[in-house]
Amino acid sequence: MGTYPDCTYVKEQVKGNDLYKVIDISRHVKDLKAFLKLRDHNPVFNVVKSVGAVGII
Question: Which residues form the domain of 42?
């Protein structure tokens, strides 16, 4: 996740909050595939997909 500039900010925002789990989807293809499956089937990502974005920060 070090390649994404907002990662440091997000990590600090969720630090100590058990409702969130930060997963580095660039470390293992299984995590990337899990994210893509979620993104492809969840309408909350429709706007970002419509502009050709991946949907991660």
Answer: 24-51
Residue 19's pLDDT is: 96
Question: Does 16 reside within a domain?
Answer: no
Q: How many Å apart are CA 41 and CA 32, to the nearest integer?
A: 14
* Residue 32 domain flag: yes
- Its pTM stands at 0.70
Task: Assess contact for 25 and 35: CB atoms under 8 A.
Answer: yes
Q: Provide the number of structural domains found in the chain.
A: 1
* Residues in CB range of 6: below 8 A, 6 or more apart: 57
Contact predicate 17/9, CB 8 Å = no
Q: Is 27 helix (H, G, I), strand (E, B) or coil?
A: coil
